[in-house]
Structure formats: structure tokens, C-alpha cells
Amino acid sequence: MDFYAVLHSAEAGEFLSVPEIALLLDAPDAASENALFEAAYRVKSRICGKIVNLRGLIEFSNICTRNCFYCGIRKSNHKVSRYTMSMEEILHSAALAGEFGYGSVVLQSGERSDPAFVDFVEEILCRISQLPYELGITLSCGEESLETYRRWKKAGARRYLLRIESASEKIFKAIHPADALYSERRAALERIKTAGFQTGSGVMIGLPGQTVADLAADIDFFRSMDLDMIGMGPFIPQEDTPMGEKFPDQPGMPEKRLELSLRMIAVTRLVLRDVNIAATTALQAIDPENGRERGILAGANVIMPNVGDIAHRKDYQLYNGKPSLDENSEDIRNKLIASLERIGETARFNASGDPLHFFNRVQNK
Ligand code: 5AD
């Protein structure tokens, strides 16, 4: 198989086998890597325009019942001081997103399924829906029952993000404690679809033991799940976690993981076409000045600027090097608009930015 021949058929929208996906991810040199990014960016520009959709990110609680080996807010990390934003604080952040013209918000938290939490999220959704802004609401609160997903959908959320973290069961098992079941995670994603959400998932890139073949299988998984949204980024060791202790960064590794993440974005765009793909904060953690911009130029079309209060930012560190720890939401916004302009992209304001794929998927049913 010739790299450029496969790239050419990928750009034309032909079906790629898993080995062909792996071949693209494995671009052999700088020239082929650039050709990959450029092809993906052309497809992104054709399908989504030179436009970036914004979602205001509200990290509303870091209380978590899970113990994922990689995550800084895992239950057993006693160095973290735990918080849940008050309803007023959350509404204030959502209103700020509305005023900024972001058009949509993402409510993200640690995972809980107790009745008080389920009620609280439902109440947040009802209250945000009553604000004088048209805000598309995305939830990212982990694995829940179908009943909970249905309640939250009914209360006004329209999208849900739940990363599979790795579609390889072997890797999934290696990065989670025994009570986190791969089959359950997949079943939760199915429930999210059943509840009628625009459904997003994704993986971490550069995990210990993860190969290019594994990452190609991840993209094949996105395709087989018929997802609407993809959010993925480099694995970044967090020092107070089991994986952070066992796999500390060696020099050069963060940049390698960033590069591999950009390749994943590009190939995902070429294979999945009309989905929303986020240029995630983890890209920016490794390259603060250009990480997310490089993500857009590799084919992503969504950015999630933080609209939460600075006071809680430092307590929501899933990984080391989280950017903008002391930057208020307004500064974040202004910097982002300027940096998008610099790369010839425009932020889309006052639109919820639904993934085209969702409508294509629903219409084809
Ligand atoms: N490095 C990179 N991403 C991480 N996440 C959690 N911990 C880390 C880490 N150490 C990601 C997971 C999770 C999302 C909210 O954050 O993929 O689904």
C-alpha cells in the first residue's frame, strides 16, 4: 500500500480498511505528515467551513466515585479539595457563555449517580433552559442508567460525551480498576444513543503500550458506533495518580503524543467526514500557544473555552499543565478569537453548532 494513494482515496471519501487507517496514522516523514494534515483540513473546510464552533466549558463538580488510574480527580486522590459549584455559580457561568455568544455550554463533572446528583443536574438543565439565551447543552458526567439519561435529555440537554478512553479492551483494563467494565462503558454509550442524544466519544492518545494498530481500531470503533462528536487528546501523566507515578514523562514524550494526537484528528476527519471534532484542552496543555490551533489545522472544528470561575480551576486538573489556570473567561475568549483569526478561521457566534452527522444519521433512519 502506498501512503499517498491511500491518502488520495481517503480525501475522496472512499471507505478505508483498518490497515489503511493505520498506514495514514503512521505517515513516514514530515512531508507525508503535512500532506495528511492538509488533506484533512481541506475536508474540514469543505464540510464545516473555515469556522470553529465554541462551547463554554463549565467544570461544575470534581467529586467522583471512580478511581481511573490516569485521572487527577480520581476518588482516592486526597490532595484534591473537592467542590460542587452552587446553582447560582453555574447559572452565572452559563449566562456568561450566552453573553459571549458561545451558543452552547458543556457541563462536565466527576461521576456520581446518587439521586441527589441526578436531581441536581436535572434542575441545572431546567434552569439553564430558562435563561434568556439560546444555549445548546452538552453533558459529560459519566456512566448513568437509561432512566437518568432520559430524564436529563427531557430536561434540556441535547448532547452527551462519554469517552471510551480506548476501544482496546486490553488497554481499557490496564488503565482502570477492576470495577470499571469495558462492556459497561460500551453499554452506557448505547444507552446515550437510545436516549436520543447527539453522542460523542473519544480516546486518550499515547497511552502506555498503545500501538498505531490500536489507534486505527479506535477510529474504526468511532465509525462502527456512528458517533456524532469526537473528543480526544494526548495522555498526560498526572503526578498524583498511579499512572503518573508509574509512567512519568521522559523528555520529548509530550511533543510526540501531541503529534500523534494531531494525526488522529486528521485521520478521524478523513474517515468520519461530517462529525464534530474537538481541539481539546490537552493539546493546549502540551503546546500552550498553538496546541488547539494545530488541532483545527489538522481537521478539528470545535473548541471548548472555559467559562467557569477561576476559583475552582486548580481543583479540576485531570492532568498536569492545565492551561489558563489564572485567566478569567473574558481573557480566554479574547485570546481565542485573536488566535483563530491568526490561522484564518472564524469563531461562530450565537449558534448551537450541531454536528451535521446527527441530522444525516437521523434522516437516514
Ligand atoms: N491525560 C489526558 N486526558 C485525561 N483525562 C483524564 N485524565 C487524563 C490524563 N491524565 C481525560 C479522559 C476523560 C476526560 C474528561 O479527560 O479521557 O474522559
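^ 5'-deoxyadenosine complex. The mean pLDDT is 96. The first strand starts at residue 51 and ends at 54.
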